[in-house]
Amino acid sequence: MRYIAVCVMVLLLYTENAECKETFTVEKIGRYLTEENPYVYSAVGKQYVDEARVQTSMGSFDTVLSSHYDKKEYPLSDGRYMDLTLAKPIGNGIEFLAGYRKAEGIQEYNNIKTGDEGEFRVGVKVPVFALLNDMNYRKYSVSSASLNAGESKFEAQNNLRHLYSSVFVAYYTLLYYSELLKLEKTLLGKAEQRNIFTQKRVKSGALPEIALLEAEQQVINRRQRLLATQNSYHNAFKIFLNYLNLPKNDFDARYELPTLSMLKKSATAVEKDFSKAFEKRPDLKALEYRKMKLDLESDYNALSKYPDVSVSAYSVHDVRYGSGTKVAFNMNFPLERRGYEGKKVEIQKGLTQVEEQQNKLKMELKTNLENLFYSQEVLNDNIENVQKEIKLVEALEEAENKKYRLGSSSLFQVNQREIYTLQVKQKKLEYDLNALLIQQEIKREMGDLLPR
Predict the structure, then answer these.
(1) What is the model's pTM?
(2) How many domains does the chain have?
(3) In-domain check, residue 154
């Protein structure tokens, strides 16, 4: 009695656990495609690096405190010089200076002479053409880093687009082998039942001994088929769970797999709107950022047309000697300007290349979607036809089995009928799988990402 009670409890617990299992639908995939997943973070990690570089580039506008101290003692002279300066650059290229300095002894420090208390100074340095063109190296660096971050954002989305597609392909492939495994088990079960039936008929003398050999050969053959399908199912499961970063024991404890037909019925139609695809595709958006970067380079390169002219003005106040001013004018200008001309052509060619790459992607996208939508229509017709074919082959298989039981057919003919029925049902599974794969490929081409 105690043994029976234990068995009943185990059975109840098993039933309860089975009822608690969730069906692992498409929506649940998103639970595991988070940034803790190595596949996901590998796809988006560069985005965060480039975002951090924007902050790094802002460092060129930091206020800089610099200090300088010299002391020398020569046989015939000596001197000391001390300088403490704050420099603050701003966005338009202007740089403000404020500081204190003191010079003693010989005149070796740019002809600087101060009183005993030193002098205070303030000044400004203005890059003339950089200011007029509203462009300078610091602004270029920050803008370039920002555009790189924007491009990386859409490149990350494009990486996710391909990753999600691979995950769904692995998921649908797993469901296909799960369903095929059931068919192979059913086929093996039929052969085993017929083997039992054949053994009885051989013992009774109704069938010759060779019939039993043939029946056993069919069982062995179908076991081999089952093992081959189990291997494919196992491999598909490992690939899928690898994407989810989820151990199989955890999956088995929580979930059960749906059928392909269940997913196909719940699948939603995709709108045939190419313009929306052009708007949503992240790789096309990434190319837009690449064009903006080239435009930025063009603006920065335009400075090379002009001399590098800067005007500096300083005001000093010496505690002992009073106030004074200094104005400086600097200019550098490459006469050949080969760097400017070469960079200009380089940028123009780069813009042309990006624009043609965009046009190529759009043409390929339109062609791919047209082919996918056509394949989808053909496949839907085939699914309707194979459903009718399944009813016919099942009826023919049942009739052949009746004939065999009545002694008017052979094991070979029954085996052929059963194998053909399985092949037709497998063909239906392949159609269902391809329908889901085509729909997933359409979503991938349209730029749809997994809802998160």
Answers:
(1) 0.83
(2) 1
(3) no
